[in-house]
Every structure is written in structure tokens, then in C-alpha cells.
Amino acid sequence: MERECPRCRATVTDDRLLRCPSCRSFFTPLGISLAPEQEEEIYRRLIRRLKAYVFGSFSLLTLISSILMFDSLKSIYDRSVRFANGLVVERIDRDFREPRITQIVETVAADKAKDLLKTQVEPEVERFQHQTDQSLQKLDKLTDDLDLKYKTEYDQLSRDLSNVATRSAEASRLTQDLGAKVALLDKQNREASTLIGSLSSAVQDLDRRKTLYDLSVKAIADGDRKALTALVHAAGQDDVLLREIAISEVQRIKAYWIGVSTTKAITKLIKDKREIAVDQLTTCDLRDALIKSEDYKVRAVCAKQLAGRRERGVPEALAGAIERDQHLEVVRDATLSWQSVTGLTLPDVFGPSESVEALWKESGDSVNRSLADGASCNVHPFDPQRVKFNVPGAPFKK
Prior knowledge:
Layout: E1 3-4, E2 11-12, H1 36-96, H2 99-221, H3 225-234, H4 240-259, E3 268-271, E4 274-277, H5 283-292, H6 296-305, H7 314-324, H8 328-342, H9 353-370, E5 389-390
């Protein structure tokens, strides 16, 4: 609702304003009146705020005044106490300076001191003196006991020292004898060490010689080709004596197997449980038995018999025996037969198979041209259907 300021005549539309925003004068009620209840409520609120303001201000002033008064009273009390204490001390000091008071104090102190000496100090002194006397008695007894004990121990020690001196002389003499014996033992020990070293060297030398001799025995008794190969390797070692022994044994083994034949009397072999003359066996049978037979005598007989079979395939079969067979008699007979069939000469019948291979590469084609055509044997070293051969008189092996 619009209102008009009665003073400046300005028009205002805000009903909540009580003053004119322009001249700050109050508006007239414009016919608006308050109910009695509203007037009463306004009155109560004004009274409540007035009380709160008045009593709050009074309480704050009262609190501040109380604090200031308490501080003043405390200061007054402290000053009064200090002043009273000063007066009392001064009065007491002045009174004690008087001769009468001083004499009284000295008399009382003397009487009290005498009483304390009689009732407290004197009993303690007597008790201490009694304890001291007892301790001195115990100390005297302990001193006497120690004196007796040490005198006895001293006498014993004197006797022991005398015995020690005697024993020391004996120990010195024994030490000298022992030193001489130790020197002798040390000399003997060095000589024994030298002898042990010599014996150890000799034993090692004998052991190496025995190894060579054992290889020689195995090569001769069993025809073991590996033993001969080991001796050939030993012939190249640095030790002169062992090298000479190895060379000597190699020559002895070769001489033995060149002059000895364990199959010379064998003219027949058993094939399929019946005896057949060796010269009646086919070349294929001989080649098959040479490769697959477990009996070295069968292999040696077949190798020897192949010397008269100048057919293609025979040199290769004999070369295979020379390369792989581990019995010296078989190797010897196979080598002699290979030389007979091929017309080629090897430097050693027990020589390395490389010599056979080298000669065959060089002259194999010309040799094969001079040989007759042989039957196709299809001999295979791992053929499970191979023919079984045996020497007459030996158990048949299935």
C-alpha cells in the first residue's frame, strides 16, 4: 500500500518502513491500531530486555569489583604477614642478645647435652666398645690359626721345594737324554721318510709295470685286442723304462700270435646241427659267420678260408673284421686273407684299420676289376635270421 510522508511528501510502497527513507521522519499510523494483547506482549518484551541489560551490566560490574577487591585484600594480607614476621624475628633476636637469656639458654643446653650423653651416647659407646673387644678377640684367634696354618704350609713348601730341586736336576738330565733321543728319532724319521718316498716311487713303478704285464697277459691268454691297443698307447709315454717295457710287450704279443694258431686243426664247422667241411661252405656262409658268430674260432676259421675266395665283396667283409673284431687271432687271419685276396701289403698284420682303408681307397677299384663276380649274399650284421655256426666239440649255441 502506498503511503505519503507527511513532511517531505515522498511516496513509499513498502509497508514495513516506519521512517521515510528521504527525510527520516516517522509515518503516521494511518489508522492502524494494536490490539491489547499485542501491546501487552510488546511491553513484556521491553521489560525483559531492560532487566537483562540492567542486571547483566550490574553483574559484570560486580564481578570486576569483586576481583579487584580480592586482589587488594590478598596484597594487604601478604604485606601484613611479612611485617608481623619481621617484628617477631626482630624481637626474638633482641631478647636473645640479653645476657640473662643467653645464660639460661646455655644452662639448658648443657643440662640437655649431659642428659643426652648419659641416656643415648654413653650406651652406644659402651656397646661399640664391647663389640670392638669381641672383634679383637676373634681377630687374635684368627691370627693365631693363620700363623699355625701358614707355618705348617711353609714347612711343607720347604720340603716340596727341596724335592723339586732334586727332581729338577733329574728332569734336566732326562731332558738332555730325551733331546739326544729326539734328535736321533728325527734323523731316523727323515731317513724313514726318504725310504718311504723311495718305496712309494718303487711301488708306483712296480704298479705301472704290473699294469703293463697284466695287459700283456690278457692280450696273449685271451687274445684281447683292447689290451694290445692299450700297450701301444703306453709305448708312446714319456717314462723311458715303461715305454721300453710296453714296446717289448707289444713285440712279444705280436710274435706270439704270428706263430700260434688255435684253429689249425679245425677243418669242419657245425651248421644247422650237422658238420660241414670248411672248404664246402659258400662264400656267403663264410662272410656271415665272420661277421656274426660269437665264437672267435669260427670267425678265425672263416677269415682264413676266405683267403681262397677271390670274389667281389670278400675284401670288404675281411676289412670289416679287421676294423671291428676284438680277438687278435681273428684280426691276424683276416689281415692275411685280405692281403691274399687283394694283393696289397700292409705294414703290420695287427696294424690300425686306417691303413686298410687308405689302401682300399687307393687301389680298391682296380682290385675289384680283377675279382670274380660273387653271389649276392645280403649279409647284414644285425640280421635276426642269421645262420648259426659252431665248432665241433663245443656246445651248440641257439
